[in-house]
Design a protein that fits this description.
It is a single chain. The protein is an alpha/beta fold. Helices cover about 40% and strands about 20% of the residues. The protein has a single domain, classed as Aldolase class I (TIM Barrel, Alpha-Beta Barrel), CATH 3.20.20.70. The strands form two sheets. Strands 1-4-5-8-9-10-11-12 form an eight-stranded parallel β-barrel, surrounded by eight helices. It is globular. The protein starts with 13 loop residues before the first helix and ends with a helix. It binds ligand PBG. Ligand PBG binds next to helix 6.
Length: about 325
C-alpha cells in the first residue's frame, strides 16, 4: 500500500509551514557587536566588512538608539586603540577614562536600558596583537589573567552589565569573578568565550581593530597556543564546563557556522545559556558572494541565523542583526 504518512502534507503552503515551523528567530535573540573609534563624526566603513563601520562616540550614541528602537537590546563593544597607546601589557585598557570606558558610558547615557557587554582581551591594546603578555616568545598565562580581572573591574565600574572575556587564558573566569566579587560588583555577569577556536575567520575583525599579531622576531605569529584546535570536540566541552565551574553565567562557541556541531553538543550538556558568534569572516563571505551576485544575501543570512538557533544557540552575536530585524519585518 502507498505510505500512510506523507511528509509533504505539512509543506503544502505557507500557512501550514508557518504553523509547524520548529525554529523562529526574533530580535530578542541577538547581540550586536559594535566597533568604536576615537574622534568625532567618524563613521568609517571596514574594508573587509562592507556596510559595517567603526563609530566615534557621537555616532555610537545614535546607533544604539536606532538599535533600541528596532528591538535590538544588547550590544557587545570593541574598541580600536590608537597605535601610540599600545604596549606589551595592555596598559591603556586599565585607563578608567579610556575609549572603552567612555563608550560604555555613552551607550548607557544614550540608551539606559541597553544591555552592555564588553570585550575583555588584551589584543586591541597589545603592541604585539596578542591576547596576553608576550615574554620570551610565549604568551604568559597567569599574569595575563590578573590583567583581565583588572580590566573587567574597570569595565564594570564604568557601567558594563556583562564582561565578555575572549582571550582563552586558563583560569581567567575565576580570576575575573573573584575580582568582581571583591569590588562588590556582584551583579556584573560574565559571558565567557569558552570554546573559542583558532580560526582564519577572524581576519576581517583584525582589520577592523588593526589587532592582528605582528610579524616580529620572538613573537608567535598565530594564537594557536591559547585558542583551540579546530579539529577538537571533547576539548570544547572541557573548556566550557571549566568556565561554568569558575563562574561563567553565559558560555559561547566561536566561530558559528563551522562549529554548530559544538553548539548542539554544549547545549545538550550544560544548564546555562549558550551563545554563538557568527564572526567577521562569515559575514565577509556572505557579503562578497552577494556582491558578485552568486548568492541571495537576505536568504542566506536568514538561513544561517536560523541554523544557529536550531543548533541550540540561545544568543546569537552577529553583524547581520539589523538585517535580520529588517527581514523579520
Ligand atoms: C580577540 C577577538 C577576536 C574576535 C573577537 N575577539 C579575534 C581574535 O581572537 O583574534 C573575533 C570576532 C570576529 O572575527 O568577528 N580577543
Amino acid at each position: 500500500m502507498y505510505p500512510l504518512r506523507r511528509n509533504r502534507r505539512l509543506r503544502t503552503n505557507e500557512s501550514i509551514r508557518n504553523l509547524v515551523r520548529e525554529t523562529i528567530i526574533s530580535p530578542k535573540d541577538f547581540l550586536v557587536p559594535l566597533f568604536v573609534a576615537e574622534g568625532k563624526g567618524i563613521k568609517e566603513e571596514i574594508a573587509s566588512m562592507p556596510d559595517y563601520y567603526r563609530l566615534s562616540l557621537d555616532y555610537l550614541a545614535t546607533e544604539v538608539k536606532e538599535l533600541w528602537n528596532m528591538g535590538l537590546h544588547a550590544v557587545l563593544l570593541f574598541v580600536k586603540v590608537p597605535d601610540d597607546l599600545k604596549d606589551n601589557r595592555g596598559t591603556e585598557a586599565l585607563n578608567d577614562d579610556g575609549l572603552m570606558q567612555r563608550a560604555i558610558k555613552t551607550v548607557k547615557d544614550a540608551c539606559p536600558g541597553m544591555l552592555v557587554m564588553t570585550d575583555v582581551a588584551m589584543d586591541p591594546y597589545s603592541s604585539f596583537g596578542h591576547d596576553g603578555i608576550v615574554e620570551n616568545g610565549e604568551i604568559i598565562n597567569d599574569e595575563t589573567t590578573v590583567f583581565l580581572a583588572e580590566m573587567s573591574v574597570s569595565h564594570a565600574m564604568a557601567g558594563a552589565d556583562f564582561v565578555a572575556p575572549s582571550d582563552m587564558m586558563d583560569g581567567r573566569i575565576l580570576s575575573i569573578r573573584e575580582a568582581l566579587e571583591d569590588e562588590g560588583l556582584v551583579n556584573t555577569g560574565i559571558m565567557s568565550y569558552s570554546a573559542k577556536y583558532a580560526s582564519a575567520f577572524y581576519g576581517p575583525f583584525r582589520d577592523a581593530l588593526d589587532s592582528a599579531p605582528v610579524d616580529v622576531k620572538n613573537v608567535p605569529k598565530d594564537k594557536n597556543t591559547y585558542q583551540m584546535d579546530f579539529a577538537n570536540r571533547f576539548e570544547a566541552l572541557k573548556e566550557t564546563e571549566m568556565d561554568i565551574d569558575e563562574g561563567a553565567d553565559i558560555v559561547m562557541v566561536k566561530p558559528g557556522l563551522c562549529y554548530l556541531d559544538i553548539v548542539r553538543e554544549i547545549r545538550n550538556e550544560v544548564d546555562v545559556p549558550v551563545a554563538v558568534y557568527q564572526v567577521s569572516g562569515e559575514y565577509a563571505m556572505v557579503k562578497a558572494a552577494a556582491e558578485k551576485g552568486w548568492l541571495d544575501h537576505d536568504a542566506v543570512v536568514m538561513e544561517q541565523l536560523t541554523a544557529m538557533k536550531r543548533a541550540g544557540a540561545n544568543i546569537i552575536a552577529s553583524y547581520f542583526a539589523k538585517d535580520a530585524v529588517r527581514l523579520l519585518g
